[in-house]
Design a protein that fits this description.
alpha+beta, Rossmann fold, EC 1.11.1.6
């Protein structure tokens, strides 16, 4: 036996030597050693057809990726969630037979989870990243999951590339750095060599990637889906969540500092808003397109790296989601919730978007490893509110105790129960789309334009937003060590805008592009700029910087104007306790200059007063105010604080309300806070 074993080992070694001699180790193979001829495209029925289950390489690659993290999510590990309800504004019966969208006023329970994508469960929250925006509707026809992001497009066009993207953006494997950041070599190497990512990267470098809060960011279904009505008629549809508070963002320097001051900033904001009764509201909008118009545009509507401009295909607002209850147990609810884009109800169907087709496989596969087996649907947070019956049995974590001897379909022992339901009784029937084509690993030629919509996005930005994008590129690419990768990335984005790329090239120390043709796209979409979003004062946070013997007459009308406008006001002083004004009014201190920081507030109001350590108080207040000033925030000051304000860098200008007499200028203060940022402020003067 020992001799036979030695012979077998020698035979294996000789085979390995032969393979190496043929350079076999540099050829891509499956885990079984089969050489792979294609790793860019999943197997489809025609270039624009659905992905086929026959594609064993895609399934092996995606399965391995789905199982790479134990026990946290591979992506979207860091997040927070809340319960609520969705109410329909108007009937969608014309477009879909989905029961929860039929009657105006119908309310459906929901559970919504927001998340960052790249970081681990313990990462900070205000990193530059896309944000997940997943909503589970507990409808009477079963659970419907709308699993999206806060950006309407994605990096890649085909799901087979998703493991590559995430491997590139995650910490580099040789040193496990950096955490929750895309500013490193492998990410930008991926971008430069997979140029379908251009449009998404423009969003990633914009202010959209550093939202002010979960409550102030848009949500998108990303993919093209179908609505199907009770007559079997279909419309293509894209989903939008519009925040009632508008879409607002942080300043990059501010976002970085918040990560240190409060790494739980976004979850704390969501939790405290709901606890304080400031319920979170998003309106649901849909873009609808008749099937006959599928090829009407200069982009492919199935391409997940493309959006549908709202000016061409308007967003129809059809309902509102209100998040009004926090979770009782973070692990049991938020961590164990399992979303899946394949969780649909009659009237909602899929398109042949190749990224969506892959997700329909991947999500179930992921939950199997993350939640320990096939019964994750029985966890309380995932259970439908309607009854569910089938012949699935056993497995890890089984909670249902099934009775009876049959668990197979087509039986006589149990009168064939449970049995299938016909369409007229609510049985789900897939939309009968005609599909023709050879089995190919390819994408449609209509997917090949990677820069027109990236240019459209650039054209749509305000001057301030463009400055922020250039700064973001300069920071991110400046963190890349390989100069060749830096150069490739800069050259790539010259296709979007040559002036932008030239400025970035100068900042990161590479030659400006010369042999690149800028996209000729001239259109813009005002809906893409946050300058055009809703601007309201509701729930804005204001720090009042104050000490003993403060000016009562200045504080009281300010508090009334701010609270009446729905703002959240914190009294911030040198120490906790009670402060007394010149006329005897008292206030309780909420925070101290040590426990909070200006980056945690939207606006400041300086009152001043007599502190025990006056010199230190004045210096701390000056630092507090100076930072808010550099972050373009609204700042007000009481007349009695004139001397204190003279010790700051603040100059009269946009968003600066000196000697504020709120009793007569309350409206002006409220408007300033609602405006959020004053980009035309010359902070370097």
């Amino acid at each position: 036996m020992k001799k036979d074993h030695q012979v077998n080992e020698e035979s294996k070694n000789k085979q390995l030597e032969t393979f190496r001699a043929r350079d076999y180790e540099h050829s891509m193979t499956t885990n079984q050693g089969l050489k792979i001829s294609e790793d860019e495209h999943s197997l489809k029925a025609g270039t624009r057809g659905p992905t086929l289950m026959e594609d064993f390489h895609f399934r092996e690659k995606m399965t391995h990726f789905d199982h790479e993290r134990i026990p946290e999510r591979v992506v979207h590990a860091r997040g927070f969630a809340a319960h609520g309800e969705f109410e329909v504004y108007e009937s969608m019966k014309k477009y879909t037979k989905a029961g929860f969208l039929q009657e105006p006023g119908t309310k459906t329970p929901v559970f919504t989870r927001f998340s960052s994508v790249a970081g681990s469960k313990g990462s900070a929250e205000t990193v530059r990243d896309a944000r997940g925006f997943a909503v589970k509707f507990y409808t009477q026809e079963g659970n419907y999951d709308l699993v999206g992001n806060n950006i309407p497009v994605f990096f890649i066009q085909d799901a087979i590339k998703f493991p590559d993207l995430i491997h590139a953006v995650k910490p580099e494997p040789h040193n496990e750095m950096p955490q929750a950041a895309s500013a490193h070599d492998t990410f930008w190497d991926f971008v430069a060599n997979n140029q379908e990512s251009a449009h998404m990267v423009m969003w990633q470098m914009s202010d959209r990637a550093i939202p002010r809060s979960f409550r102030m960011m848009e949500g998108f279904g990303v993919h093209t889906y179908r609505f199907v009505n009770d007559q079997g008629e279909a419309h293509f549809v894209k989903f939008h969540w519009k925040p009632k508070l508008g879409a607002h963002s942080l300043v990059w320097d501010e976002a970085q500092k918040i990560n240190g001051k409060d790494p739980d900033f976004h979850r704390r904001d969501l939790w405290e808003s709901i606890e304080n009764g400031n319920f979170v509201e998003f309106e649901l909008g849909v873009q609808l397109l008749e099937e006959k118009d599928e090829f009407k545009f200069d982009f492919d509507i199935l391409d997940p790296t493309k959006l549908w401009p709202e000016e061409d295909i308007p967003v129809k607002i059809i309902g509102k989601m209100t998040l009004n209850r926090n979770v009782d147990n973070v692990f049991a609810e938020m961590e164990q919730v399992a979303f899946h884009p394949g969780s649909v109800v009659p009237g909602i169907d899929f398109s042949n978007d190749p990224l969506l087709q892959g997700r329909l496989f991947s999500y179930t596969d992921t939950q199997l490893i993350r939640l320990g087996g096939p019964n994750f649907h029985e966890l309380p947070i995932n259970r439908p509110v309607c009854p569910f019956h089938n012949n699935q049995r056993d497995g890890y974590g089984r909670q249902t105790i099934n009775v009876g001897q049959t668990h197979y379909h087509n039986n006589s022992l149990s009168n064939n129960k449970p049995d299938t339901a016909p369409e007229e009784d609510g049985g789900y029937v897939h939309y009968q789309e005609k599909v023709e084509g050879r089995k190919v690993q390819a994408r449609s030629d209509s997917f090949k334009d990677h820069f027109s919509q990236a240019r459209l996005f650039w054209n749509s930005m305000s001057d301030a937003e463009k400055e922020h994008i250039i700064a973001a590129f300069s920071f991110e690419i400046g963190k890349v060590n390989d100069m060749n990768v830096r150069k490739q990335a800069v050259d790539m984005f010259a296709n979007v805008d040559m002036n932008m790329a030239t400025q970035v090239a100068d900042a990161v120390g590479v030659e400006a592009p010369t042999d690149v043709t800028q996209s000729s796209e001239s259109k813009s979409s005002p809906a893409l700029s946050q300058e055009n979003t809703a601007k309201v004062p509701d729930t804005r946070t204001v720090a009042v910087l104050i000490a003993d013997q403060f000016d009562d007459e200045a504080l009281e009308p300010f508090l009334k104007a701010s609270l009446d406008a729905g703002m959240t006001v914190n009294i911030v002083s040198e120490k906790f306790g009670k402060l007394t004004g010149k006329n005897g009014a008292t206030v309780d201190v909420d925070e101290t200059l040590l426990t909070v920081h200006s980056v945690l507030y939207d606006a400041l109001y300086v009152v001043g007063g007599q502190a025990k350590q006056q010199q230190k108080f004045d210096a701390d207040v000056a630092d507090f105010v100076n930072e808010a000033y550099m972050h373009f925030k609204p700042i007000g000051s009481a007349p009695a604080a004139e001397g204190l304000m003279e010790k700051t860098k603040v100059k009269p200008g946009p968003g600066i309300l000196m000697d504020l007499k709120v009793s007569g200028e309350g409206e002006q203060w409220v408007e300033a806070v609602a405006h959020h940022r004053f980009w035309d402020r010359n902070i370097y003067a």
